[in-house]
Amino acid sequence: MVQKYLGLLDCNNFYASCERLFRPDLSNLPVAVLSGENGCVVARSKEVKDIGVPVGAPYFQIKDRLDSIKANIFTTNFPLYRDISKRVLDVVNESVLKMEIYSIDECFFIFESNNPDKFISELKTKVETLVGVPVSIACAPSKTICKYANTIAKKTNGHFVLTKKEWLKKVFDIRMGEIWGVGLSRTRQMNEKQISFVSDFLKLEDPVIKNLFGVEGARLKLELSGDDSLSLSLRTKNKSMMSSCSFQKESYDLVFLETAVKKHVHELALNLKEKDLITTSVQVYIAPSRHGDFFLQGASNTVDLIQGTNNLFLLQETALKLLRQAFSKGVPYKKAGVLFSHLVPNDVENLVLFEDDLDFKIKTSNLSDVVYSINKKLGRNKVQLGLTGKEKTEKVSALRSQSYTTKWSDIKLVLAG
User: Fold this and answer.
1) 378-406, pLDDT tens digit by residue?
2) If residue 42 lies in a helix (H) or strand (E), which one and from where to where?
3) Which residues touch 15 (CB under 8 Å, ≥6 apart)?
4) Which of 77, 311, 314, 406 places its Cα 20 to 30 Å from the Cα of 13?
5) pLDDT at residue 390, rounded to an integer
6) CA-based diameter of the chain, in Å?
7) pTM for this prediction
8) H or E element: which one contains 201?
């Protein structure tokens, strides 16, 4: 009998897998991907995970360990990752009824089949054959259970079906801390109430859960009961996007931080343009190392824009103002980031009764479009606004792989013997 099912596809070690895709010589060799300024580890192959290197580890602290296993080190190459992600999602979308993009390497989907295990097995083979990156796929009654089932899929043959009946047998052995979305703070709160396992949570009456954990808790119980099947938020647009990096060395220099923030704004603004979105909120944050005496002196500032925009000039001007407000002299900053949120389609017009600097906005909007056009034709970073630190950028970029799928000059050549 043909029924509808909920599935989750997750690309395995995605950034590392993308780096291996055009480098078959790296198959089964350790690969680590670093943040934009080579500050910390953001992705690891299995071989790197096996020696205990965690995500977020500062590179200078684990460099010797990576060297000891002769790990191949890369700087993040987001144009490559986004393009491979799109290819994966296109293959999935061709095979399913509905799809929700959860992140660059994950998507939920609804499919019809009389044999769900066969379906997800064939979908896994199809993605890996047509795109080339390894994936794990799970099928379960709800999104939260799908996330748990996917951890089993990764440890087995890469695909796993967890029925509601089998799930309810497992809940006595699954700790709440293992559940997607239940963080350390929530886990401690639950442990204080003697709610250690999923079975303990499911035994609670709905009014008790709502009183203790609010609407979020009520929603979680619905998910963990397996009664929230086939509910997808079929969004095709991002709600927010962020760009951040940790620095190789701490910096007290405002100009250095301005350069980092400009780079982040530039990257995010190009993403907005490519996705035909505008942002109505800009946030900038800077932070020192978590391991020093200044770890509590990070700061962030946010501004809600009266009118949404993807104007590169206006976004950079706004972000730099926020940075200067957050900056404190004498603090050794280790990280900087920019967040665009409350994103809406570019055709959603937010009219303003009294427009300030209208002439400036029109002129810079035209210039912004020219920058986008040039970068689209010649490469994402050919034209940038007032960036400094070129020598440092070139040094960091030496670890970045080529744009195999987005630049003609970087296309991989295959020679017949």
Assistant:
1) 655 566 666 544 434 444 467 788 777 76
2) strand 41-44
3) 33, 42, 43, 74, 76, 81
4) 406
5) 44
6) 71
7) 0.69
8) helix 198-203
